[in-house]
Amino acid sequence: MPKANTAGKIATPAKKGYRYKQAQKFAIERHLAKPKAIKLTKEIKTLIDANIEEDWSPEQIVGKLKKKKVISLHHETIYRYILRDKSNGGLLYKHLRHQNKTYRKRYGSSNNRTGISERVEIDLRPEIVNRRGRFGDWEVDTMIGKNHKGSLVTIDERASKFRLALPLPNRKVENTNRAMKFLLSPIAKHVLTLTFDNGKEFCGHKELACDTYFAKPYQAWQRGQNENANGLLRQYFPKKMELDNIEDEQVIEAVNKLNDRPRKCLGYMTPREVFESQTGINLREYGIMH
Prior knowledge:
The chain is an alpha/beta fold. It has helices at about 20-35, 40-50, 60-65, 75-85, 125-130, 175-185, 225-235, 250-260, 270-280, and strands at about 135-145, 150-155, 165-170, 195, 210-215.
């Protein structure tokens, strides 16, 4: 029975049970008081800055840091870091390929459209292509010069590592298609599929006489062969070089050198040797290599 206090009033018994509002308040206070793990330390920012200034994408930086077991980040963290740097007057954003576009999340967005009609996702590409289980499947991209001046269209066969490339007067669809047809028409029966980046220069993909597929946006590793070969070609056409005055012969000479390098992954055969053994084509007779 409740006891009377000294003033003669009946004391109210203490409330019992779970008081969710109070519990939630305490939980929020504890969360705010917790020391937060700071991922972007000064050292990590220095690494990120150095890689961005080498024109690496946030995805490439994240992948490399994880591979080296330095830190695990999400590429959106780096995009936001670049955005903050830009708002503070920094220039890191200038090293991004799409530096002048409005920032938005690179995933989970209903606005993530490529503008490429009749585009078929890489998920629908035959499994034999993914396994490099046959000859005749190619990856395509364009390699951009400094200050976006000039570009090359680059095409790589997945099984043999054989590469074709040609400079473009500009990246208009008609010029890109013309260059691709010029490179591939002598070996057309050995072109079964083409897998592209999502550049607008590839909007004319349906004009090419083969099955075409597109990697997912911002996932360059899905065209790993082409990305790697572009890196090798940068030995001759570095990122600091403008490509608007490059002659066809300069590109052909550089590509020939790559195709005549023995590759460990090919048992130290060259891409040209593997290509010719698979097709029976003498590339010099066809005028593709000099």
